[in-house]
Each structure stands twice: as C-alpha cells, then as structure tokens.
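Let us practice reading a record.
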Amino acid sequence: MSLPKNSVEPIYVIDGVRTPFMRAKGPRGPWSAADLGVYAARALFMKSVIPPQAVDQVIAACVNPSEDEANIARIMGLRLGCGIDVPGYTVARNCGAGLQAIDNAIQSLQLGLSDCSLVIGTEVMSRAPLICPPLVADWLSAGAACKTTWQKMKWLSQIPLRSLSPIISLKQGLTDPTNGLIMGKTAQEIAYHFDIAREEMDRFAVASHQKAHYAWENNQMTEVIPLITDKGTIIRDDGIRADNSLQKLAQLKPVFEPYGSITAGNSSQITDGAGCLLLATESFIKKYQIQPMGIIRSVRWTGCDPKMMGLGPVQAMSRILIENQLHFEDIDLIEINEAFAAQVLGVMKSFSDPVLGAQYCGIDDRFGPFPEEKLNIWGGAIALGHPIAASGIRLVLRALNGLRSQGKKRALVSLCIGGGQGGAALVESV
C-alpha cells in the first residue's frame, strides 16, 4: 500500500514512452517481451538527459514472459546498460501489473531506497506459450527413466493420445480459478446485473475506435515511438478501425455465451506492446535540472467479487477521491482501461445510480454523477489493445500527456484486475 498523502515528498514522472500496440493476428509476434521493453526504454533514454547509469533500480511488469525471460526486469536492465550493480525485479498483478510496478517504485523512492527508478511494462500476448498437459508431462518423465529398449517400447505404447492437445496458457490465464469464469463471462455478469444492452456496449466500442482514430489524426498520441522492423516501420496502434459501425458490430456472434452480448467487437484486443517511465524524487529532479511531466499523488488498490471483477475500479477510485477530499468535478480527465465495454459501463452506472452503487460496490453518491465527457477522450483498450502488463503504463502516460496538452491539472486512472481487484492512481501535471 502506498504511503499516506503528504507524508513524504512527492514522486515525479520525468518522462515516458510506449511502443505502438500491435494486435495479435495469428502467428507469434517477432519480438519477445524483453525485446519490446528494451526498445521502448532505449528510446526513452535517447530523448532524456538521464543516462541509464543514473537509474538505481529497474522494476518491470510482465505477466507472460517467455520461458527464457525469468526475472525479465534484470534482463532488460543489463541489456540497457544500467550497470551490473543495478538490481531489477519483476511484478505481476494481472491487468494491474503495470500500475503495480509504478506503485512499487513510488514506495522505494518515498522511503529513500531509490532516487530514480526505471519502470517498464511489457507484454507479448501473441507468444503466450502452449502448456503440456499433466498426463503428458507424467508420461515424458516416465520415459526419461527407461533403461532398456524393451522398457522404451512399452513406454511408447502407453502414449496418452487423448491428452496430447496442449493447454492454451492465455485462455487458462484469463480464467479465474476460484470460480471457473473466463474474464469475458465476468463482463457478461455485469451486463446481466446492470441491465446493459448489447447495443449500448457496441455504441461504446464504436466511440472508442472513433476517438482513438481522431487522436492519431490530430497528433495527440505523442507518447508513442515508431517501431522499426525488418518489414518496415510501425507508427500507430494497428487495432483501430476507423470505419467501425454499429451495423458491423451487430453482425458479430457472442464469444463467451451462446445467447450473451459480449463479442470480440465490444471487448479489448489481444495485443503486444510495451511502455516505460522514469520516476524520481524531487532532489533528483533538481540535481539534473529537469522539467518533469507530472506527479503521481497516490495509488490505491481494492478487492471485489471475482465474478464481477470489472467493477474493481469503482472502489479503487472512490478511495482515491475520499482520501484526497475530491469529487468528480475536481477531476479533469479520467482514464479507465476498457477490458470490456460492459465493464466500463458498469463502473459508470455504479457511480451514477446510487442503488446500483450501494448494492454492488458499497459506495454512496457523494462523488457526484460520473462525468462521461471526461472519460477516455482519446479512446481506450477496445480500440488500442490491452497488452496486460503494459496497460497501466499506457494509462498513466496518456493521462499526463493529456493534461499537459489541454492545460489541465488532475487525472484519475484506473483498471479492473482479473481475480476481483481494482487499482487507481491520481496524477497531476506540473
């Protein structure tokens, strides 16, 4: 848990960048999670007066690193040239992993254990591994113990043919082991309980694509760096569909339940991407004479019913507002990760409808109606994608750059988290 507000000096965001988010289209992506994280961080150091050697710790968020990327933070720190004496560690809190890495860095900085921390969130969902089923693993282990030709022949005859199909780790990871619900079904639960119609979800999804397209066309996505590949340069997030429409989305079949309303069109995309931030204390800022992007005032976490995990942002944002004595009218911008349209709509209705808010989230109406006009004004994960551990970085970056471009002061950032949790952060421009 973050330290109480104003108990220590504020923590500054020096700068940050992210790669374009790339929709998984079938084949494995050409980059590993470490590749994308290193690419983003190198670009950040190239535009900053801070050299890699000035960083005193690397904190990475990655939920699905490759099999050869154990403690991916350490790997990236060494590849970046931060120095062999600079430690690195990796965190995972499902969709909240990127924000968790930021929170860990804040705590270290506030406690005086660090002066400047590099935070990286990276995820390559297209490379999520296939897992060997337990029966096949047992069979392979038995084969390793065979000594004679006869034993090996007998072993081969016992191959568990019915169990050869691999387990899809991405699907397994997106399924809550406490209730057996894949994340899309938790969104369906919210749609049922909050009486959210499919057309309402599809309308929200179309707006996400339209806003993201407008943001790119008007040069708003200033935090995104070009990604140079052997096949050309990727400049934009490639999941945005400028021609999306209610008519097109209405043709899609439900994904998670035969008669449900959650479709691929009103859900976030399976995506590869990375982002990074440099966080520092006030004394470090003064030493290097830096004009920072902004301040992270507080980060808060909360739990909720795993069956309706998408409501996690309600209590997390409520806690931020209460502790900082704020109402929605005091917030200039709001960024909520669009895991599913139903999920974000459920969050909005929890704040705007006192009955629903009290029944499902235990909140009252002290915050005022939810200001939809301040929400995700540059689009969200339905259009941009949701590379799990990178999303928290993206939200904070977009909020800070958005405040700066609009001359505004304060933004609220939040995510729902698989397993029934919510995370939120209050950020301010400088």
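A brief commentary: Confidence is low (pLDDT under 50) at residues 1-6.
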